[in-house]
Structures are given as C-alpha cells and as structure tokens.
Prior knowledge:
Elements (H helix, E strand, L loop, with lengths): L12 E6 L14 E6 L3 H12 L5 H4 L8 E4 L16 E6 L5 E10 L22 E5 H20 L12 E2 L5 E5 L12 E7 L5 E10 L10 E7 L2 E6 L7 E4 L4 E7 L8 E9 L9 E4 L4 E4 L12 E4 L2 E6 L10 E5 L7 E5 L16 E5 L8 E6 L9
Parallel strand pairs: 7-9, 13-16, 16-18
Antiparallel strand pairs: 1-2, 1-4, 3-6, 4-5, 5-6, 8-15, 9-14, 10-13, 10-15, 11-12, 11-14, 17-23, 18-22, 19-23, 20-21, 20-22
Amino acid sequence: MPLPEDHTEPGTSCTVAGWGRTRERGHLSTTLHEVQLNLVEPEKCKHVLQTVKSAMMSPERLHRPPPALTVLCAGPETGGRDACQGDSGGPLLCPLGSGGGHWAALGVTSWGKGCGRSWKLNSSRPPSQRGSPGVFTDVRLMLPWIKLTLRRAESKRLRRPLSRLCGVQDGAMNDTEGVIRNPTSRRRYYDNNELCVWSISVPPGYSILLEIEYVDIENDSFCLHDRLTLSVAPQKPVGIFCGSVRPSQFYLNNSNHATVLFSSDVSVGGRGFFMRYRPVRRLADPGCDTVVLVQNESSIHSPGFPQHYLNNCMFRWVLNFTYFELEESSRCLYDSLVVFGDVEGSEEIAVLCGAAVPPPVISYHRLMVLQFTSDSSVTHRGFSAHLEFIPHSAVE
C-alpha cells in the first residue's frame, strides 16, 4: 500500500497483471500475464477521458465543470499495450522513490475504452473508434476509506472467541462429555475464512468416543477447501472429511486427548457439523460404522468374530493374519478388506477377499488404515489378525 504523501512521476514504468483478455474481444487468458505501462500526466489523463466521455454525455452535462480526478492513467498514446476486460480489480504496481527498491499498489485496474487502442488525436475520430489509456483507481485517495474498513473488520475480529478466527466458541472443552458444533444453529451457514480448534481431554484410563450426528461441509474429492479434521496428536489425523455424508463414529482407543479442527476457505459453505464426545473405559465390540484407532500392538478382528459378520457393514482400524474368510469375487467387489496408507484413502496398499490367508501386509509409513466392507448378501466368518510394529529400517 502507498502512503498518502508518496509521489510517482509521470512516465514511471509500472506493472499491471491479470488473467484478462490479451486483445479486444479475445478470449480470457488461462495464464497470468503482465505488461509494463508508463504513467500518463494527470492533465493529459483528464483531457483524454473527457474526449471519451463526451460522446456519452447529455448536452447539459457537457457544460458542467469536470469532477476532480480520482484515477490514474497508464499506457502509450499509440496503443498496443494495455489492461483489458477481465483484468479489473488487479493491481497497478509502481516503484516508489528514486531508488525504485520499494513497490506499492498505486492503482486498481478499473476500465478503459477498448483494449490497446491508440488515443492520440482522439477528438478527430468518431466516438466508436476512440481509445483511452488504462484507467486505474488512485489508491492514495482511497486510503481513508480503506483504513476505516480495516478498523471495522479488526473491531469485529477482536470480538470473536478465543482463536479470533472462529465464528463460534472454540478452545479447550471444560467438560469431559459434551457437544461441539459450528455454526450454533443448523439453520445457519458457517463463515468463510474460519479456523476453529477444540481440544478434548478425558481422565486417564479412559478413551474418547466421538459421535458425529450430522455434517454439511463444502465437498471436493480431497477436502482441500473446507474440512473437518480429527487428530490425537500433531501430524496424526484420524479422520479428514467434508461433504454431507455422515461419517462414522470414532473410538480413540487408549487416547485421552483429541483435537478437532475446522477450516473454511474464501467461498462456498454449508450448514457445518454437530458432534458429541464422551469418555469410555472400553468399547467391547465397536460394531460397524466405527473408526477404531489402535496405537499399541494388538489383535484385531472383524465385527463379531468368530461369528458371521453383518451385511451392509463398513469398519475401519488404525498385519499377520491368523484367519481369513471373506466372500470371494472378481476384484473383491462384494466383501473386502482394503488397507490404506493414509487417512484420506488415496494410498491403497492391498485389497483382500476370499478364503486364502494373505501374506503379511506392511504399511508404507507409520500409519495404516483398514476398511472392511460387506454387501447385502452372503457372509463368512471374517478374519483375525495380529497388529505388529516393526522399525522402518527392518523393511529397507
């Protein structure tokens, strides 16, 4: 941003950038372009704009004194270089001072007559063939308004809770059992540009059970825009999700601390989420639709083993198989155990089904996620496996 007293001489070479058209009535660009334009003398700028506007003015308005100049003009009289349609709102960046080491957004791309037209001898041309230099809002004249707007935004931000970036109360949850939601009502939408962090703690000897009752978060394939993240430690996410499909409940076995993080980007939102958390000593058989975090070496098995697993089941665990019997099918389309190397499910390590005991499955990294799925018919006894931790050097 420039200072009110910053002065830049006419003829100074400035830079304009944008994704606008590269010629008049051309196509919008798919890549960012820039062009160097020299600042035009204020009096010449005022004159050429009068020649453009006079063709659009009524006779009585022509005799009124011209308003004060609130814009900057930049570009050669002969045309050929200019901002164009689609560049509006972009910056006009100019060097300040004699050394040119400090640059500022002196203007904001506003409008122009055509793109790259010559505006020399404008008055002698028919109105439809006249051109103009690029016209840019003079940021220095807008500084009082910009400062007032920023102060209002800062005042509103300071009234926000704890993180000051969250539209609802976040921070440490004081109760060992409670509710986390954003926004406070399902009839509202969450804010853009939010970053909310809640921390949950339960007494030693207890684990945490999280039950998500509803979720409506901007959806995309990898939850890159808005997302809800559950973690048990820094860089250890248990679940990352978005969209409107209600996730499983989460059983954080042997974890008495958890973090819930919600973030949103600059556009598109939803009705948010609502979850409950509570301490549990032990969940004997979590059943289907539960994500279980396993942090210690342990035996794991399909729901209800050695009885038949249920139809329409999905179960996740976070492998030497001792027993394996799932419905067999081509590409394991019916019932399957899928092993992933990440929470998002993009690193597929193995897809297993059938009656043969698989060889040991080794994770790519420190994290392994198991997803068990069954369809609506035919069941078997399932599987049982022992989870074992080995040093990374052992598989190099």
